[in-house]
Design a protein that fits this description.
The chain is an all-alpha fold. It has 9 helices and 2 strands; from the N terminus they run H-H-E-E-H-H-H-H-H-H-H. The model has no long low-confidence stretch (mean pLDDT 89).
C-alpha cells in the first residue's frame, strides 16, 4: 500500500465535518468567517471547505472564547499583535502603506490597505495566518520575531 501525503492546508472537510472535528457549532464557524478570524477554502459552488490547519485554528478560537474569556474583538486584537511585517520581511516603504502595520484591532489578513509584499498574496497560504494553530503561544511567537 502506498500512503497518500496530505498537506495540512489541503481543503478536505465540509462545514458539518469541521464542526464535529473542532467541537464548534456550525453557526459559530460562520460567525468566525464573517468576523475575519478564519479564511476557509471555497468551492466553485461557494461552499466552504476546511483543512486540518483550519480545524486547529477553530480549536484555538474556541479556547480563546471559552477558556480565556475573550470576545471576537479581543481575539482580533490578540491576532493583530503578530508582527506580520517581520515574518514576511516587508520593506519600510511597504510598512508605511499598510494598515496591518498600524492596526491594533485587526489581524493583517483583514487589512484593507496592504503593503507591496502582501497585495497579491493568498492570505490563507501566508505564514502569518498559518502560524495560528491550536497550541500557539503568542508570547513565544513574539519572542521569535521581535528583539
Amino acid at each position: 500500500m502506498s500512503g497518500v501525503i496530505v498537506s495540512d492546508n489541503e481543503p478536505l472537510y465540509t462545514l458539518s465535518i469541521a464542526a464535529k472535528l473542532s467541537q464548534t457549532a456550525q453557526h459559530s464557524i460562520r460567525q468566525y468567517i464573517d468576523r475575519g478570524l478564519l479564511i476557509p477554502h471555497k468551492k466553485e459552488s461557494r461552499r466552504h471547505l476546511f483543512s486540518n490547519s483550519d480545524i486547529q485554528r477553530l480549536i484555538w478560537i474556541r479556547k480563546c472564547l471559552e477558556e480565556n474569556g475573550l470576545n471576537f474583538a479581543g481575539i482580533k486584537a490578540k491576532l493583530a499583535l503578530i508582527p506580520c511585517w517581520k515574518i514576511t520581511n516587508c520593506s519600510l516603504v511597504s510598512r508605511k502603506n499598510c494598515d496591518a502595520y498600524y492596526s491594533s484591532s485587526h489581524p493583517c489578513w483583514v487589512a484593507s490597505q496592504k503593503g507591496e509584499e502582501c497585495k497579491n498574496r493568498d492570505c490563507k497560504m501566508c505564514e502569518v495566518y498559518r502560524s495560528i494553530t491550536a497550541n500557539i503561544e503568542l508570547k513565544s511567537l513574539l519572542r521569535k520575531y521581535l528583539p
